């Protein structure tokens, strides 16, 4: 599911503590009231943001942590 920026203007976006805050390539995330997690490009905060359900988001974060993402 994608949300337009206007629909997410009141949510609290956050970046990883590993982000350098130098205007680089950062991903911002926001926890939505429905339990989903929205993600957007910090360089394009007015663009659409895909949202992922709890299970999908948890699996993604776990795969990042244990290195099982392909690539």
Fold and architecture overview:
- This protein is of the alpha+beta class.
- The protein has one domain.
- It has one helix and five strands, in the order E-E-E-E-E-H.
- It comes from Streptomyces boncukensis.
- Pfam families: DUF397 (PF04149).
- This is DUF397 domain-containing protein.
Structural class: alpha+beta
Total beta strands? 5
Major β-sheet profile: 5 strands, antiparallel
Q: pLDDT below 50 for ≥5 consecutive residues: which ranges?
A: none
Q: Overall mean pLDDT score? A: 87
Q: What percent strand?
A: 25-35%
**In whole angstroms, how far apart are the ends?**
24 Å
Q: Can you give the helix content as a percent range? A: 10-25%
Side by side, the strands of the main sheet go 1-5-4-3-2
Query: What is the oligomeric state here?
Result: single chain
Question: What overall geometry do the principal axes of the alpha carbons give?
Answer: globular
> Please, how many domains?
1
Element-by-element helix/strand order:
EEEEEH
What is Rg?
Answer: 13 Å
Tally of DSSP helical segments: 1
List keywords for this structure.
71 residues; alpha+beta; 5-stranded antiparallel β-sheet; 1 helix; 5 strands; 18% helix
Topology:
Blueprint: E1 2-3, E2 14-15, E3 27-31, E4 37-41, E5 49-52, H1 54-66
Antiparallel strand pairs: 1-5, 2-3, 3-4, 4-5
